[in-house]
Every structure is written in C-alpha cells, then in structure tokens.
Amino acid sequence: MYFDEKTVLYFNNQYVKATEAKTGLFDQSLHYGYAVFEGIRSYATNNGPKIFKPIEHFERLKFSCDCVGIPLNYSTQQMIDISYEVLVKNNLEDAYLRPLVFCPPNMSLQKAKESFLMITAWSWGAYLGNNLIRVMTSNFQRPNPKAFKIHAKISGHYVNSILACQEAKDNGYDEALLLDINGNAAEGPGANLFVEKNGKLFTPPSNFILPGITRATVIEICKEIGIKVEEKNITVDEIKNADSAFYCGTAAEIIGWQSLDEYNFPKAWEESIGKIIQAAYKAKVLEQDFKMEMV
Ligand code: PMP
Predict the structure, then answer these.
(1) Domain count, the chain
(2) Are 62 and 80 a contacting pair, CB within 8 Å?
(3) What is the pLDDT of residues 101-129, one digit of tens each?
C-alpha cells in the first residue's frame, strides 16, 4: 500500500528500493519513539507537480529535531530537492511525502550523536475520507507541554493519537477530539479544529496543540477572503452549541464534521464557512485563483 517492489526512496545519502532499504532492531528511535517526521503533500497543478508549503514543512522538521536534540545535517533546500527527486523517481504528482529522521542503535536515554534521513512518497487519498465525520470527545488528553515538546512532530507523541483514534473507532465514531490539560478542546489525533458560530470561525490557541501548517493556511485564507477568525479557548459545550465545525491537516485537508458525540451540527455543510474554506484551500494547493462562485 505504501510501497511496492518498484518504489524508490531516499535513505542514507542514496536513492534505494524500498524493498531493499534496511534499518536496525536496536535503533534508539524504535525503542523510545525518539524520531521526528513530517507529512507533506504534492499536487498535480497546471504548473506541474508542486509540493505545498515545502519550506514550512522542512523548517518544522528542523525545529522538531532541535527540540529533542537530534542532529540533522541537511538544509531545507536540500530536503526539498530530494523530495522532488523522490516524486520523479516514483512517477508521482499527487502524493503524500513522508520524511522521517531517526537515530542509530543506542539504548541510553541521551540525545543522539547522528541521525538518518528517509524520504518516501505514496499516493494517498484524503486521510479522513470525503464524507462528513462523526467525532467523539476523547477520554485521552493531549500531552502536557511540561512533559513533551508538543509543538514538535515527534514520533513518540503519536501513541497518544493512536489511543484516542482507536478509542473513537471502538465506540463507532470516525475520529476523536482530544481536550487539553484544562479540559478545553485541543485538536484531533492528526488535525486541527475550527468551529463556526454566527458567521465567524474559532480555533483553539496554539498553547496545547501542534499548530499545523494547514491551520495557518486556513487563517491566511480567512484574511484573504474576509472571513472573521479568532483564536480562543473553546469548551466542548461551546462546540455543542456551534453551527458547524471542521478538521484541517495536510493529510486530511479540510473535512467537515457531522456530529460531536450526540450533537449534530445544525448547519448544512454546503452552507457552512468550512465549505468555502475547503474550496479555497483546494484552489490554493492547485495554484488556482479562488472565486466565491467556485463554492
Ligand atoms: N495536529 C496533529 C497532532 C497532527 O499530527 C497534524 C498533522 N501534522 C496536525 C495537527 C495538522 O498539521 P499540518 O496542517 O501541519 O499537517
């Protein structure tokens, strides 16, 4: 699914077949979740294949490495060039790119002295599908910022995401909403939250979330097309009083919510601000001009 016998990926300064690339069972990253990664998309635009916001993603990768003391000897431009090369070698245009920085064998709990960079790509549809999602308020909180560098995209953090996502699935929902340590809405296991109320969007502040590149793009789109947006703490009760809501993220793009727990959102998705944002986001990643008539 993610690779086949033809897939070529970048690993250890070379392009190798995915089926032949190997790593070790004693890697510090495997044992302790001590690795960092990115999730990036490229799109088949009229101007050729274009990676969306590559500088932002690779700067975040470097930031994540800095946060946990993993050395990374690549410049942003080098990693962008490698990513385009991976797309070419695999004949991909519309694709999801997964850079992973991980560390060699080490059973100590000290920072790594060297790291490996892997960049691979595969075709991937919208991560949460294309239908409105039914969301469950999770019993799992997002990690405490005093316990983890929560603004970094660190592999080990995703155990928290797996717990929340699986709990939601086990209860018959599509996805989870995690709260922060104060009980306010934070984000999904792999996406950020926007809520619509009285013609305005609200999104949780960046304190307790991974402040996504898509979230920043949504805020940018709001400014461009004149939609009011405010960062503020949002309670579950406020969401259950809202008109509409959506998640956003690189893999999920923009995906509307049908419900939170027992609460169904009253505004039809077709009439919501989320629907406008979804169309404007699509236009942006495809490098097209956005017009309201496109909605
Ligand atoms: N929150 C979490 C926990 C995530 O894993 C992601 C996906 N990277 C996001 C938010 C959205 O981030 P982005 O828009 O940068 O993909």
Answers:
(1) 2
(2) no
(3) 999 999 999 999 999 999 999 999 888 99
